[in-house]
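Key result, reporting period 2: structure in, sequence out.
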């Protein structure tokens, strides 16, 4: 058999196995870290922009993603899918000093809430001189209100 025949099959198997792996991992995280008043948002579109500045280098990485968001009182879990179908690792953002029900959290440093989108800005601890901006677009008024309530602690 031609070895190039197996390459597309291996790629297809990889996507199926990784999808199942991340789906099971997502369910475990939700079951373990869920608080009684948690909110879950599905199919939120957005981008992740990572900018790394160093001595003589400058790198900018852009990813179009679809997110599933799981929000607690003190943190939120973002489950991104690149190109809307390929699952990636979970991002856990912590709003304050409360570390309850978090898993390897990154601290949310800044946020901007607009009429129909939200920007979340963080500076990862493990990546010096790096700024990551997560933009969640196409939100309706109820979803924006949920973000405002969680991040600003409005009633």
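The corresponding designed sequence is given below.
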């Amino acid at each position: 058999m031609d070895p190039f025949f197996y390459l597309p099959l291996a790629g297809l198997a990889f996507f199926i196995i990784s999808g199942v792996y991340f789906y099971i991992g997502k369910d475990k995280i939700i079951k373990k870290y869920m608080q009684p008043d948690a909110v879950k948002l599905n199919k939120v579109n957005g981008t992740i922009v990572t900018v790394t500045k160093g001595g003589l280098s400058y790198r900018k990485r852009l990813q179009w993603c679809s997110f599933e968001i799981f929000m607690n009182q003190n943190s939120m879990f973002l489950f991104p899918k690149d190109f809307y179908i390929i699952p990636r690792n979970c991002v856990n953002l912590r709003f304050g000093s409360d570390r309850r029900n978090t898993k390897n959290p990154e601290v949310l440093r800044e946020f901007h809430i607009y009429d129909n989108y939200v920007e979340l800005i963080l500076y990862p601890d493990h990546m010096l001189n790096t700024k990551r901006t997560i933009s969640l677009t196409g939100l309706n008024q109820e979803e924006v209100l949920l973000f405002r309530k969680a991040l600003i602690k409005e009633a």
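The radius of gyration is 17 Å. The chain has two helices and eight strands. This case is discussed further under Risks and Mitigation.
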